[in-house]
Amino acid sequence: MTAIKGTTIKTEFKRICELANKGETFIITRPGNENVVILSEKEYQQLIRAKAYAERLSGLVSAGTSAEDTYPEGFFELFGSGKALGLDESPEELSFSNDVKREVL
To answer: Would you call 3 helix, strand, or coil by DSSP?
Structure first.
């Protein structure tokens, strides 16, 4: 997130819009902490969907709904349940050799 002044918006609006569409987020600082955020429509839609999902989960949890009810209809038919996938079993032990060299990034 990049903080910019309102005067920068006036002079660099096109460039800021192009950068926002490439994934950059801008916070426009204003007097009295009345700041504004510029982000792409794609990112905005993702935030709206995440908010709606969080509100749905919150409502389900407060209503005492089971975990299976938090998944979309047909999820378990499509992907199966944890038991069918063997997720209820103990994980297998993985052995690691001490002579393996790790690449340093």
So the answer is: strand
The count of C-alpha atoms lying within 13 angstroms of the C-alpha of 16, restricted to the half-sphere facing its C-beta, is 20
Residues 40-67: pLDDT tens digits?
999 999 999 888 888 887 776 676 666 5
Adjacent-strand bridge partners of 28: 4, 36
Structural contact between residues 19 and 44, judged by C-beta atoms closer than 8 angstroms = no
Say if CB 34 and CB 26 are below 8 A apart: no
DSSP per-residue letters across 52-80 = HHHHHHHHHHHTT--GGGGSPTTHHHHH-
In single-letter form, the type of residue at position 7 comes to T
Q: Parallel, antiparallel, or unpaired for β 36-38 and 2-5?
A: unpaired
Can you read off the two tokens belonging to residue 42? Answer: 């794609």
